[in-house]
Design a protein that fits this description.
With 154 residues, the protein is an alpha+beta fold. It is 44% helix and 19% strand. It is built from three helices and ten strands; from the N terminus they run ββββββββββααα. The protein has helices at residues 83-100, 103-136, 139-153; strands at 2-3, 18-19, 22-26, 32-36, 39-40, 43-44, 47-50, 59-60, 65-67, 76-78. The strands form three sheets. The chain has a five-stranded antiparallel β-sheet with strand order 2-1-10-9-8, with helices on one face. Strands 3-4-7 form a three-stranded antiparallel β-sheet, with no helix packed on it. It has a two-stranded antiparallel ribbon with strand order 5-6. The radius of gyration is 22 Å and the shape is elongated.
């Protein structure tokens, strides 16, 4: 389990994800419970719960599963040993989130999901604009000079 927001794996320092080897299970109350494999006096060093209604979605990036959570800017990430494990967990987590989110909380979750998605799109658009601006700096004059040189050579 890795989290940049501290939601799933304790608080991370300086905004960097904190990676914590952990196990994950669905507990009796319908919450996703995680606990670190590292223990102290027979108890997990770190542990926590995530309510299914707090999960805005389950995204399989091809490398990790990302769980965007209500109130956090960065998703909790789950790493697995194989692609098959990742795909299986993604499917089961999607089902758990859908089935275990109370009907009364679904419209709020859906609104939060849409807001989160809009924020992601704006952030991506901004990063793309910055990248485009950096790539275009100085290119105009370079191409103008090359065009002028080619014209003079004719």
């Amino acid at each position: 389990v890795a989290s940049a927001g501290g939601a799933a794996a304790g608080e991370a320092g300086a905004g960097r994800p904190k990676r914590t080897p952990a196990w994950l299970k669905l507990d009796e109350s319908g919450r996703l419970h995680w606990a670190s494999l590292e223990q102290r006096q027979g108890r997990p060093l770190e542990e926590g719960d995530i309510a299914p209604s707090e999960v805005l979605g389950v995204r399989n990036t091809g490398m990790v599963l990302e769980l965007p959570l209500k109130g956090f800017t960065q998703p909790a990430t789950l790493e697995f040993g194989t692609a098959a494990e990742r795909e299986t967990w993604a499917r089961y987590l999607e089902i758990a989130v859908e089935v275990l989110t109370p009907e009364s909380e679904r419209s709020e979750r859906d609104a939060e999901r849409a807001s989160h998605r809009q924020h992601e799109l704006e952030e991506r658009r901004s990063l793309n604009e910055e990248r485009k601006k950096r790539l275009q700096e100085g290119l105009g004059m370079k191409f103008t000079a090359e065009a002028m040189m080619n014209r003079e050579q004719r």
